[in-house]
Amino acid sequence: MAISKEAYQALEAIVGKEYISSDPVICEGYRSGPGGYECGLGYERVMTKIPGCVIMPRTTAEVQKIVKACNRYKVPYVPYSTGWYGPRSHCHVDDELLVDLKRMDDFEIDEKHLYATVQSGVIYSQLQEEAMKRGCYIIVGGGGSQCSAIANMLGDGWSPLSYRIGLPHRRILGTELVLPDGELVKMGSLATGEDDFWGEGPGPDLRGLLRGFTGLRGCLGIVTKMAIKLLPFQPERLVPTGISPHTTLELPVKRVKWINFTMPSKDSMKKAMFEMAKAEIGGGATKVPIFWRAIAKANCKEEFWDIWSQENEESIASFHLLRVLLIAFTSEEQMDYEEKILNEIITELGGEARRTRPSDESWFKNADSAGMWLMCGSYVSVDYVIETLEHSIPHGENYAELKKKFTPPLMPDYGDPGWFQSFELGHQGYSEFLVYWDPDVDTDGVDFFYLETSKENIRKRFYTSLLGPHQPLYLTGPAYGPNYHTWLLKVKDEFDPYFLCHPPVPLAHDAFVEKAEWMRPMKDWESPEIKHSS
Amino acid sequence: MNRRDKLVAIVGAENFSDDPAALESYAKDFSLQPAGAPEYAVKPKDTAEVQKVIKVANDHSLPVVQVSSWVHFHGATIPKKGGIILDLTRMNRIFEVDEFNKRVRFEAGVTWEQLTSHLEKKGFRIMMPLLPHPQRSVLTDHLEREVITNTVYDYGEPLQSMEVVWPNGEVFRTGSASVTGYPDSPSKGGNPAGPGIDFYRFLQMAQGTMGVVTWTNLKTEFPTQKDKMFIATVKDLNMAMEFLYRILRIRIGQECLLLNNTDLAAIMATDMKKEFASLRASLPGWTLILVISGHFRDPDGKIRYEEKALNEIIKKEFPEISFSDNLPGLPGSGQKLLGMLRQPWPKEITYWKNRYKGGGHSLFFITKPTLAPKFIDKMESLASRYGYPEGDLGIYIQPIEHNRACQLEFNLFYDPTSRPEVERVRTLASEGAKTLFDQGALFTRPYGELAKLVYDRADGYAAILKRVKKLFDPKNIMNPGNLCF
Amino acid sequence: MLKGKLKLDVTNLDNFEYDMSKCIKCKGCTWVDHIYMPGMTFSTRCPSATRYLFDSYGAYGKMRIGTAMLEGRMDYSDELLKILYACTLCGACDVGCKRNLDLEIELTLEALRIKAVKDGKGPMPQHKKLAQNIAEKHNRFGSPHANRNNWLPKDVKPAEKADVLYFVGCSAAYTSPEIAQATAKILKASGTPFMLMPDEWCCGNILYSVGMFDEAQALAKRNVEEVRKTGAKTLLLSCAEGYRMWKVDYPKLLDIATDDLGFKVVHLVEFVDELIKKKALKLKKKVDLKLTYHDSCSLSRLSEPWTPWEGERGEWGMVSPRLERRRGENGVYQTPRDILQAIPGVELVEMIRMKENAFCCGAGRGTKEAFPDFASWAAKERLEEVKAIRAKAIVSTCPWCKENFTQVLSKEGENVKVLDISEIILAAI
After folding, report:
1. C69: chain A residues, CB-CB within 8 Å
2. Taking CB atoms and an 8 Å cutoff, what residues of chain B touch A336?
3. Does B233 touch chain A (CB under 8 A)?
4. pTM for the whole thing?
5. Which ranges of B99-253 would DSSP assign to H, the alpha helix?
């Protein structure tokens, strides 16, 4: 057995025989790669392992007991909701226990008070449908409908609909967290009662341990239950239509409408977003990379390349598509009003409406996120950051320039500067940069690019989502805060004294750079020796 | 150099005091908390001086109590274990107003009065709690999560990234202000989250126990272009709650709140002696205040569709609700109220919570709106039991974010020079807190003796809080004796 | 093969190395299409993943296991065989994956079983018994071959020669004769002369499904040749599994296109639909029934015709020549619904998981024989949906579905009728 017999027996006693296995075939099914988010790259190849054992708890109490048993027997473990996030959600050391949370799928909803309580096994499309049945909605993060709602709320959780709804941090209410030492902390209103409708307090807010912007990849405990804020929607149904692969939600256009506009320049798009926010209209506003239009049009990978190969730097630079979502929350008259105002803004800025399908398959129920892998069989976002619009736009442009040096092996995108969106009615802006490569050729260049983006952010003083466990901690740490890493590691050491919870995260990327021979020349920062586990 | 001399060397003699008479103003506040006894008070001018003071405090294991406002109501800044008062009121710079990103950055000592008038000149406003004291620190009130009167914005949390001096004296910037060289960076500080962990959360509702926040970024909004007041008399609070569930969910309105006659009279009376009693008697038991506003670009259009939706709901579902643009019998009161809602309390007038009798203790908590009437009944019955004058209870209900929750606030008025009144209010507040807490009231901001009540029940949470606190403040110098520390 | 020559040939797992290695673990293979996600209940469409829970039982786990097998890192074991065979090959995973990607999941699963058999490890012992029955008695039950046509009603006489050849199949011949009888009567009522195979043998569905490629291929050759000899223009089936076998897997086994079989393969519902349009059949009799329609996998998701393909995979994983992928979009979904809705008195209520999202009955492709508990469990899961919509009857187009639902219902004592569509059509004539 990969973990000790005593440990296995202790764990089996917690969940029952049926829900634990160290059979090699069972464990092999939990391999991270070779396909998936960030898969096929050096990090995945070097840092991930097949679990030594897989366990499937059902309740918070079982999770707590499992964690305590791991502490007792010094078994490293990693929490796993869907495994969708790629290598960083999988085992990194030998003989590790993978805690598969899919059986934890309890669900409750209080539509009057606009929140739903979920366990880790509930995914976004389930939650969104239950919300929409009751006149509410949530943000389904860019990762897609298949994300565990909790996992995504801890590490991501935004989309163009964040124009209204904002940072996911704000939508985390009462939460249960099993800390790496097995202590259970109940946050928000759960600290003093059974109802989890409220997120803050009491007093200083321990939800600070949960995210740190884009999550800790499960190295600071296991969230077993979370109440998530719902937002009020409008009353008409978004009707599912079509047969796979052409399924979509038909929008009730008197209440929900996407409109695409061609704009004369990037600056005019930025201004449009500003004016929309000033007028306080809209439910979503995003620049659409031409790339995504090609994906949407293509029937297959080959057709995508037919379309994409027609593009060039000039066509990319001169294409400015703004996609705006209008939601008439209050009444149909709101739609008329907002559409009028929107058209006024667009006309002033020299834009023009394009014919837009009255349907959605990307954002309300993000059913096509897996399509990001269609073109090349690979994908990772090298940055996705919420800051301000004035940060987002140059951030994307900077990436586009940097990316040229690493193309190939990166897929040619003719200098496309990625997504940018307006969040929180113009208080924030969003930029995301996605890259693709052929996973069946030498991918070292992608590894270099990934790390180089971190250095570039530091050089150019951009904020970034890829902090904490996402990049070498001793590289980013001194540059942000400064020295945020010292605090993060203090917290980690306090609550995980044996370093058993998802080792060696948050130092996994540091370890990767040291382990991977081709990465070592990139190391030009100081760090102590990285311990992988106790 | 002894510690006193070190402090003088840092801030200068004119910004230092250990004179008991001068220190007395820090020893107590408008709360019912017993007086404390600070040893020193220092007024640093900037973050660098704050750092140095903190280092001295660490070296000498001296408690530090940070004070950013000129007035205090909850006892959080009364030193429980002596130490240094770190008075940040000199740090009152407004660094920049960022129009494009709707943001303002300012220091801890900036008051409501200062900030709102500055922003007004620049063409902005910020979301307001109800009539904040003009000399309170805007930063502190946001950190302490004062609830805003506006229910319609989905994103809540106006605070963005900030600067903090940790208890070890290190400076740190949270969120996107953490980039090297901020604000000389493409990053504007618009994201409060990270880096690494969400430090900003530890600083919220911390009553100064986790670190010294020296400046913050805050969301601003454009002013509304047109407003329409909707004021309704409410007899049946349960019905009013259902009404709010209905209309706030479809995003009607900007500001929306409920006040009972006592609170409203204390707010509206021009001359307390002459008007308060009659005004209170003439005002309805409850008043529902709703503001519908239009923004840039056809503000009338927005008001029109919201008003239409509102009227349709009233006609079909809530015929008992009848709105007017003024309080009954008080022409012009609607516009007066609207103006008040968008400003801090006027400096020249005694603060509204102290106007009636000189003293006012607020007992407030978060709950679900549907439960508010039950808590009110309970509190009224407790008030009667403890001899609190009938009709003297001020009650304020603030719906939060589409009415998914609300803050319920009881204002207990008393003459601070009358010992029996003080004791009566102290007892009522204490018993009220215990009873309501047992019935599910959520005290997220546990000031004074509420802390023991809350943390005895939330002992698991408190235990983890203490472990986190110890990482940042191993010597427990930051405002010890508050919360569970 | 990650790059280079490539063929959609299930006898060589190498052909699916790319597909296995590019599974991204999105679980589109397991969840109902997110657009149609009904909420917290009835949210999955993979019976194996839903029942056994460990990732290894979902297609996303199997792709990883397959990669390990190809890399020589995975030894055969009872658990591995269970993972490969406790699966109805219902195609939900294939369709789910192809909503967004171009991975051949179904073919990979078939190839894994073929490899297991080639390696001398598969199929399951129960399947070997079936194979023996087929070899000896030309039916999977091991019943006397001579009894194969005993189902024929006295008042129906097949023609000596006709354009339409009705292929009955083992189930309808031996265990669900009411389906064959209803089909024959429908043909008679519509004035459609039909013939039977002079000597009908098992179609070999089980053999192919469990990976016994050579045996299935031999049977396919024989059966196709026999049909060609009859000169039939149309091969009619009332069994979805048989339909898929003839239309899709026979061409696959013979490395030809469906169009090259030399005859059209149609299911009864397609034929009836044409008859109704030509006014050769009128469904006028009232059938007072609130019923629901279960999309049998092999008639719906898996029923698109087969075209052999070979070529190359190159840069970015692109294949050439261009490959028209079978994504399940053109399966037979609407036709049976149109028929049911045309019958007076019928109230058709849809289950929550319908069309390409349907939850397999659990019986097919060797599952029921090797894992009867799993098959019962799957049927029970499906029947929960029937209960949820309060239908009085469940109608399908396959005797496998009908038999499995019937067995479970009789154990549960629920008052829901299980009918084949042929029976409803007949009742409405």
Report:
1. none
2. 305
3. no
4. 0.97
5. 112-122, 138-143, 199-203, 237-249
* Pair (C61, C112) in one structural domain: yes
* Torsion, Cα of C292, C298, C301, C302 (10° steps): -170
Kindly state the DSSP code that residue A27 receives in the 8-state scheme. Answer: H
C132 and C104 in a single domain? The answer is no
Nearest to B401 by CA among B109, B168, B145, B46: B145
Question: What is the interface pTM, i.e. ipTM, of the complex?
Answer: 0.97
CB contact under 8 A, A34 and C62: no
Q: Which of A56, A243, A361 sits opposite C355 (nearest CB)?
A: A243
Domain enclosing residue C19, as ranges: 1-122
The verdict on a CB contact (< 8 Å) between A25 and C33 is no
C318 domain-assigned: no
Q: What is the CATH number of domain A249-441?
A: 3.40.462.40
Give the chain B residue whose CA is nearest to the CA of A483.
Answer: B172
Among 3.40.50.300, 1.10.10.10, 3.30.43.10, 3.40.50.1970, name the CATH number for the domain at A5-100.
3.30.43.10
Local confidence pLDDT in tens for the 534 residues of chain A: 579 999 999 999 999 999 999 999 999 999 998 999 999 999 999 999 999 999 999 999 999 999 999 999 999 999 999 999 999 999 999 999 999 999 999 999 999 999 999 999 999 999 999 999 999 999 999 999 999 999 999 999 999 999 987 789 989 999 999 999 999 999 999 999 999 999 998 999 999 999 988 889 999 999 999 999 999 999 999 999 999 999 999 999 999 999 999 999 999 999 999 999 999 999 999 999 888 889 888 999 999 999 999 999 999 999 999 999 999 999 999 999 999 999 999 999 999 999 999 999 999 999 999 999 999 999 999 999 999 999 998 999 999 999 999 999 999 999 888 889 999 999 999 999 999 999 999 999 999 999 999 999 999 999 999 999 999 999 999 999 999 999 999 999 999 999 999 999 999 999 999 999 999 999 999 999 876 554
Distance from CA of A442 to the nearest CA of C (A): 12
Q: What is the CATH number of the domain that holds C267?
A: 3.40.50.11810
Q: Does C211 lie in the same domain as C80? A: no
**CATH 3.10.20.90 is held by the domain A107-232:** no
Interface of C with A in 219-248 (CB under 8 A): none
CA distance B481 to chain A (A): 13
In 3D space, the residue among A36, A34, A30, A88 whose CA is nearest the CA of residue A56 turns out to be A30
b (16+ CB within 10 A) / e for C221-253:
eebbebbeebebebbbbbbbbbbbbbbbbbbbb
Is-contact C25 C88, C-beta < 8 A?
no
Q: Which of A28, A369, A441 best probes binding to C when mutated, by most C CB atoms within 10 angstroms? A: A28
B119: tokens are 């922003």
Helix residue spans in A228-331 (DSSP H)? 266-279, 290-297, 301-308, 313-317
